[in-house]
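Re-run with default settings, no changes from the original entry. Doing this only to confirm the output is reproducible before filing.
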Amino acid sequence: MIFYVNDIIKDVRVVIDENVNYDTLSFINDVNTLSLNEIIKSKIVAAAMFTHCNAPVHMLDGGYNFGESIYWNNDNSGWTLLPEDFLRLVVFQMSDWDYPLYSAILPDTPEYRKQFSRFKGIKGSPHRPQCAISIRPDGRALEFFSCKNNNATVIRGVYLPYPEIDKKNKKNGIEICERCYQSFVYKTASLTLLTVGENDKSIILSELANNLLL
């Protein structure tokens, strides 16, 4: 869902007003209003990135498709290149898999090394699939393990992109998962307070932001 910067700033200021004491509020109000708004705006992308990376899958909505082109290895495993703006996997499933995957392993894990075992029972399979995010010479890729044969296709491949403010639009919108919005607002407020030196209040709001993702 698209949220506009001016509306986000208003929501963040409400959270700050409701969660700091009078002395802190007086200090913040001494900061030029325009300057405070600019601080809030400067924290929006970082807060959105944190929120989307840490949210549970059931709170994510939207996303973009990937996996139109796939490449095969000799053992019926393969890979597909990830978009340059890839931030987080939402879901991935090959057509002959028993179920989809909502997270990927990394190359530095023991589970990843198992995918290259000469014993088939250890590696991923259509009944117990696995996928990994890795670096290839042509960019980041999602590797999948494995399929029955090379006729399988991607039936579900969705990711969240790096968040960015659309500066081409006068309202400066940014895409945030709707269920994550309240947590995002608290995280933005937390980063704002950290910038103005209110470390303790920042920690409190950060914890509230995390709790809203449970």
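The first strand starts at residue 2 and ends at 4. The chain has two domains: 2-59+177-211, 64-161.
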